Amino acid sequence: MHKLLIRVTLTVFITTGAILLALIIVVNHEIAQIFASYLTMSEMMHGGMHGMMNHGMLQPASMGLPEQEFLRSLKHSLFFVGSIMLGLGAIISYYLARSITGPMLTLNKAVKSVAAGNLDTNVIIQRKDELGQLAAAFNEMTKKLKSTTVLRQRFFAGIAHELRTPLTILKANLEGIADGVITPDKEQMDSLSEEVDRLTKLVEELRDLSFLEAGQLKPEFQEIDIGSILYQIVQKSQPLAVDKNLSLTCTIKTQLAPIKADITMVQQIIYNLIINAIRYTNTGSIQVIATQNSTSTIIEVIDTGIGIDQEDLPYIFDYFYRVDLSRTKQSGGTGLGLALVQQMALTHKGKISVQSELDKGSIFRLTLPFNIH
Ligand SMILES: Nc1ncnc2c1ncn2[C@@H]1O[C@H](COP(=O)(O)OP(=O)(O)O)[C@@H](O)[C@H]1O
Ligand SMILES: [Mg+2]
């Protein structure tokens, strides 16, 4: 069962024992030597020639009873201390081994629990050493695994949900037409066509996302004039802003250095941000502002719209996350826009951040570094 515990205990114990044994043998030998030469010396001084003839070799016969007794008691003490130390060594070996294998057993249990699907498993090992670090890394890994699993579940639920609504509408209308309850006039056909468009958009965004995440959608980096791209997109979005009585402006603060980027992706990012700003703003304005610092071009899309609650803010880049479901459904969003924007920004080694206040408005900031390698 606890093979490692036994092995580590035995290894430490045997090593300690062997060192101790060697020490006792050496000390014992040394004492005998020193004692022998002491006796020889004293015999030489008192016994003259007789002592000399023994050439310093210790003869038991030359030892008197008191000397033999002294040597024996010395050996006794030596073995007594040796045994105590050996016993202590055994206890220390065991605790040392336990301090290593104990956390490992805890971790082992935790790994098995995660493998069995319990992603809430957390190991508590209050240590700063390698085992403590291993436990912390394990906890971090489990946390990531859990969030990935939750995201995946939400992703599939989102797809199912997004597909169901247009399909239900199409099916009901087609049945109505077949039964003669609905007349297939132009208006009817346009509305059905809109549902098909929504499905097509969803499928396209899903495809782009999966390609981007798998690294299969290779960006075509080329030098682009970000200023003129911004003007073009703002121009293209103007009618949508006018429809809602919103002012849409574009300001380029400094002479922007050309950047290397995939033109289609950059267009898509900016367009998505502008469409969101228009969609989630009822009155006021949308400003697109471009500046740059020493390392990057910074593009901000600032609106005076409904804003986003601080609680929702960390999730708006997740798949299918919407703050207000009913509202976005009407306006035709798929809930994938910002997820795509984030992936595309990452492809450019850039980042997208957001600042928002409820009922005041939002600022989406895209940072595109000059150096993408
Ligand atoms: N400019 C904005 N102002 C307020 N809320 C926003 C803004 N942009 C995005 N959101 C919120 O973030 C959610 C996710 O955005 P997005 O991924 O583009 O999906 P959608 O298809 O719903 O637009 C939106 O449903 C909305 O609730
Ligand atoms: Mg959107």
The CATH homologous superfamily of the largest domain is called Histidine kinase-like ATPase, C-terminal domain
Radius of gyration from CA coordinates: 41 Å
Element pattern in H and E: HHHHHEHEEHEEHHEE
CATH C-level class of the largest domain: Alpha Beta
Task: Assign the CATH architecture of the largest domain.
Answer: 2-Layer Sandwich
Hetero groups in this structure are: adenosine-5'-diphosphate, magnesium ion
Which of globular, elongated, flat, extended, rod-shaped describes the shape?
A: elongated
Instruction: State the separation between the terminal residues, measured CA to CA.
Output: 52 Å
The main β sheet shows up as: 5 strands, mixed
Question: Strand-residue fraction?
Answer: 5-15%
Number of domains: 3
Structural class: alpha+beta
Structural features:
373 residues, alpha+beta, Helix Hairpins, Heat Shock Protein 90, 3 domains, five-stranded mixed beta sheet, two-stranded antiparallel ribbon, 7 strands, 62% helix, elongated, binds adenosine-5'-diphosphate, binds magnesium ion
